[in-house]
Amino acid sequence: MSSSQPQQTFYIVLPPQPEEAPSYARQISRLMQKDEAAIREQLASPTYQLLLRYARRDNAEGFCNQLNAFGVRAFFVSDTSLSGSLFIWMRQANKGAGGLALQDFSGQPLYSPFEDIVGVFSGTVRRTDGSTTTLIDLHRKSTPITPRIDASLFDFASVTGGDNTADAFIQAIYDPSNVSLNQEFDVHGEAFGKAARKALATFPGQFAPSAKELPTEYDPDVLRAFDCFSYIAREDRVRIMEG
User: Fold this and answer.
1) In this structure, which long-range contacts are made by residues 162-171, counting pairs with CB atoms below 8 Å and at least 24 apart in sequence?
2) Computed over its alpha carbons, how large is the radius of gyration of the chain?
């Protein structure tokens, strides 16, 4: 008896487009059989959108190729890539000549060479009591296993050499020639999160501190929105680097 493959879904992602993209609205509206004005609005969006979903990879790939042929940048992600990504909260780190020697809340080490860090994603996340904290994800090119830092739980001075702030930490590892800095979550995170929770059937994994190690637990909807936004931002960054 042959085993059946699990159902897979492929999601078309529309990144922020260049200024001229709305001029292709008529062609894209014919391709998608949607209202031209609605397509023009989508092409002018300043943030990521989840455009369509397909059950077959070749259909998703073909649709992206058609969009790219019109000059509209698009890519697709799958349930497998979503579920295969993981955010791990880090307790501390030491900065060496070649990278960061991090340690998570279970005491497990994780080394990230500077040359492998291709993006820094940060934003404000609300807790259940209404307070907020800053989360920082260090996107790596080699793997979707992403070190995550909660600014309220992390000693930045061990990396910065004295200044115990998130901004100083980001500047200590940020190389504009090789690393992207994305802080758009505070502007677009709520809208993107609502769309992601509605559109996606699978979400990234988390390895977070235990409840006793957190001052107050994160608002689950806001945290999920941050996960999805960060995941999409990394996928986009890696694809850009790979051409």
Assistant:
1) 166/122, 166/134, 166/136, 169/136, 170/120, 170/122, 170/136
2) 19
Helix ranges (H only) for the chain are: 25-32, 36-43, 57-69, 79-83, 157-160, 166-173, 185-199, 220-242
CA 10-15-17 angle, to 5 degrees, is: 140
How far apart CA 19 and CA 168 sit, in angstroms, is 33
Neighbours of 138 (CB within 10 A): 25
Rounded CA separation 87/104 (Å) = 11
CB 203 within 8 A of CB 228: yes
Tell me the two tokens of residue 203: 């979400």
pTM of the model: 0.92
Tokens of residue 94, six digits: 């030491």
Closest by CA to 168, choosing from 148, 187, 151, 186, is: 151
At 197-238, the pLDDT tens digits run 999 999 999 999 998 899 899 999 999 999 999 999 999 999
- The type of residue at 92 is Q
Average pLDDT over the chain, rounded to an integer: 92
Catalogue the E-assigned strands of 128-179: 132-140, 145-150
Give CA–CA dist 138/140, Å, rounded: 6
d(CA 243, CA 239): 6
Phi/psi of residue 4, nearest 5 degrees: -85, 145
